[in-house]
Amino acid sequence: MRKDTVLSGLSCFLLHFFQKLLHFVTMRRFLMRVMNRVLLIDPVTPATERQIHTQGRRKLVVGLGNTGMESTRHSVGMAVLGALAARLGAADRWHGDKQVSGEVIVSEVQHTHVVLLRPKLFMNINGVSVARAAEKYGIKPEDILLVHDELDKPLGKIAIKHGGSARGHNGVRSCVDCLQTDVMLRLRVGIGRPAEKTMVQHYVLGRFSSEEQKVLDSVLVQSVDLLLSQLSQEDSQQSPSSPAGGRQAAQKRKEKERSASPAEESAAVQN
């Protein structure tokens, strides 16, 4: 009898705990959504023809991350953007733009005019910077490429994903919320999960070890190769600019994957 009472009490406690946890997570996402929308209220002045060079084709490449924490695993997208800027010979052209709350470079890849963006906001509200940059430079969501860390892929693996859900990534979720669509192309850069029972938050906000840095150097090179390949394509992927449309389009396309292992040549594989 006593055993049944203890089990019943434990069950009630766990049920109450998970209800509170669910309420907390739901409330947190709601507050982030409200914050995203509030920060988008101020109008953005469109870029002049001189700022963007011409009125031709444009794309926006964004390195998601936390401002002030650029060298952490969670901000590996920013490291990729830095490597891309260096490859384009534009590493010294980063400049702050208060309107978009980020650092920007306007460059060119073949016949495509490319805006590189490193948000100067925390990851959970990176979407504010992305949406404002897209508005300023007149770039459609389907011409935006997000570069971000991916826990579910080991360090040394990168993959292109065509739209779809945020898969739990707060930076991507913010972008989906602010742009009101999920059609954006993503370059997912694997950082792996902690080997021990370390808190994930502590792990992603930590820096790469010296051994991991050796792998990362190769990852950055191959990430830039893949980005340049995507930016050089003649026609951008056309997808409906709506959350549902993005998911449906993503289901119809196969995700291209590419290994960035220093020991072997990268190859595209199905997700």
Mean pLDDT, to the nearest integer, reads 80
Strand content: 15-25%
Helical fraction: 40-55%
Quick one: how many beta strands?
9
Distance between the termini: 52 Å
Number of helices: 8
Biggest sheet character: 9 strands, mixed
Rg computed from alpha carbons, rounded to a whole number of angstroms: 20 Å
Q: What is the succession of H and E elements?
A: HHEHEEEHEEHEHHHEE
Strand order of the largest sheet: 2-3-4-1-5-7-6-8-9
Could you say which structural class the secondary elements and strand pairing correspond to?
Answer: alpha/beta
pLDDT under 50 segments (min length 5)? 235-245, 252-257, 259-271
- Any idea what the shape is? globular
Overview features:
alpha/beta; 9-stranded mixed β-sheet; 8 helices
Molecular structure report:
42% of the residues lie in helices and 19% in strands. It contains 8 helices and 9 strands. A 9-stranded mixed β-sheet has the order 2-3-4-1-5-7-6-8-9, sandwiched between helices. Residues 235-245, 252-257 and 259-271 have low confidence and may be disordered.
Short description:
The chain is an alpha/beta fold and 271 residues long. The chain has helices at 2-39, 49-52, 76-87, 126-137, 170-179, 200-204, 210-231, 243-252, and strands at residues 58-63, 95-97, 102-109, 112-119, 144-150, 157-162, 185-190, 256-259, 268-270. The protein contains 8 helices and 9 strands.
